[in-house]
Please model this.
Amino acid sequence: MQQQAEADNVSRVTGPGLKRFNGTSHPMEQTEILRVEGLKKVYRSGAAELVVFDNLSFGVATGELVAIVGQSGSGKSTLLHILGVLDSPSDGELYFAQLRLRSLKEEDAANFRNRQVGYVWQFHYLLPEFTAEENVAMPLLIRGEDPDRSLKVARQWLREVGLEPRAGHRSGELSGGEQQRVALARALVTDPRLLLADEPTGDLDSSTAEVVFELIRNLHRAHGLTSLIATHNLAFARRCDRVLRLQQGQLEEVAPESLPRE
Model:
């Protein structure tokens, strides 16, 4: 009975088709939802080898808002891709809740991405032939959910990002800030537990960037998300719970208040 209850709980967390990790040797702390152990990423071209980072180990607690900072080329985007199971590490382990992510087969990895992770990138990647509402609904439609229900949920999320009146507009009819807010709604429409944002304000002017960052923070708190944001904006990083800095292939935690003021 207890084993069945535990299995049912894992299924609710992960969605159908994902295997449970054997908790007897699970390395995660009680409050952690994400754990990285000895992560390494190497790109090879012939005999040449580029080590992006090596031996990264850290945990992220449920509900944390974590900034990842570092110079261009330091590996911030690569790290987010690996955390979101869009790329594979060369070595090391990655755990999410009760899942060992490197063990997932391709179909299970796609299922995990659709159900557990929301992505926001520097470019919005909205489909120009569809309306804002249709763009937001797309992850639900891909999942095979009812179109009418998907559009209803999409409109609710557009309301949350302040864009319900623009639901019928195509991406080319929206400003840069509006496009990024639609992208944020699309990232969260599946009710993920983990939000990964890669320079989400990098293409925006300072005032619009402030609006988008504050919106991310507010949604993070309101929906109990665990969020990692790669950013060059140190003012934004200082307002996060923790800051991880990638530098010369290594990761160090720095106090948010110690970051230099721009």
Remarks:
- Residues 1-14, 16-27 have pLDDT under 50 and may be disordered.
- The longest helix spans residues 206-222.
- The longest strand covers residues 32-45.
- The two ends are 57 Å apart (CA to CA).
